[in-house]
């Protein structure tokens, strides 16, 4: 079984290459004419996104790449799988090397009428990959969608000069690698970090409010510096978004999170799970920042944990539909703040209930369990049931099958409306 797993993870489709383009400038001594300034590939104008000068309402979904029985633990093990009775790993491979799984998710986003898939970590090929360029960008081109290229930031002491220098260098290298990709034009923006604001005290025993404030101030100054240096010298940079858990510190001048202290951050992303409404989120955001807002995560799970637990796709669909309605209304509003959003998530992730200890057979099972959320009817967000599509095993290991839930149908209806 281990050999089968290894072979599947190294499966790579044909490489797409593009002929070089040369541009020849020619001097002219004619009288000066009005200069046409070409639009940037991707830019914000007001609160909305534009791609190649055309309005681009962000109709997205968050990825959930890992097939049944697999999980990612970072280097040196990389992607691993439970292969009864033990585990098999291929060191160095990441979720974004799994081309066969990425293609399916990109295709599902397109089938829903979506135009964007959001990722959580580097999408450039890992050192162990045989792919010459980003797998997800290649499939994004084939399927006609854009990609929010994620960049994960681990919990750390953000006041530490070495930590800061390492992040500045690594992020700059990542952005440069993206620019060199033949499908770089499919990068919509870069999603820098994910909910670090909820974990500033995670490495500090008996963390005080003052220590939390110090970490926050250091973090926001760091991400702004990372963004500024990554954009330096680039005539056509991609927007950079910092993703917050809820509204968090956005707008707080005391921790360097106000607009004035973050000039190189183009937009804020907010992951929010308040229930069957955003309950004032958009107006609350407007009071904190003039930057565009991307609702980077929203939705509801399809599991009702009450009375022993049962599958409840109907309630999920109702919540997801209402949230899309609010986002669309804000986008249409001339005074709105949102560029759109990404529903969480495309497909169920079977590993997530075991996130605290992935080295268990449970990664091969569809389990309930998650975190308390009073905005949901059962008071719980079940981590393995977020998908618009239900994941199931197929005849070929790791090539899962997907069945649309009612929330997928509702999402398809909302995304195909005129925004």
SSE layout:
Blueprint: H1 2-9, E1 42-45, E2 48-51, E3 54-55, E4 58-62, E5 70-72, E6 79-83, E7 86-90, H2 99-111, E8 116-118, H3 135-143, E9 146-151, H4 161-180, E10 187-192, H5 209-231, E11 240-245, E12 267-271, H6 281-286, E13 293-298, E14 303-304, E15 310-311, H7 313-332, E16 338-343, E17 370-372, E18 380-382, E19 389-392, E20 401-404, H8 406-415
Parallel strand pairs: 4-8, 4-16, 8-9, 9-10, 10-11, 11-12, 12-13, 13-16
Antiparallel strand pairs: 1-2, 2-3, 5-6, 6-7, 14-15, 17-18, 19-20
Largest sheet: 8 strands, parallel, barrel
Shape: globular
Q: State the end-to-end distance.
A: 48 Å
Strand content: 15-25%
Radius of gyration: 22 Å
Short summary of the structure?
This protein is α/β, with parallel strands linked by helices and 419 residues long.
How would you describe this protein?
There is one protein chain. The protein is an alpha/beta fold. The chain has helices at residues 2-9, 99-111, 135-143, 161-180, 209-231, 281-286, 313-332, 406-415, and strands at 42-45, 48-51, 54-55, 58-62, 70-72, 79-83, 86-90, 116-118, 146-151, 187-192, 240-245, 267-271, 293-298, 303-304, 310-311, 338-343, 370-372, 380-382, 389-392, 401-404. An eight-stranded parallel β-barrel has the order 4-8-9-10-11-12-13-16. Helix 2 (99-111) runs parallel beside helix 3 (135-143), helix 4 (161-180) packs parallel to helix 5 and helix 7 runs parallel beside helix 8 (406-415). The longest helix has 23 residues, at 209-231. The chain is globular, with a radius of gyration of 22 Å.
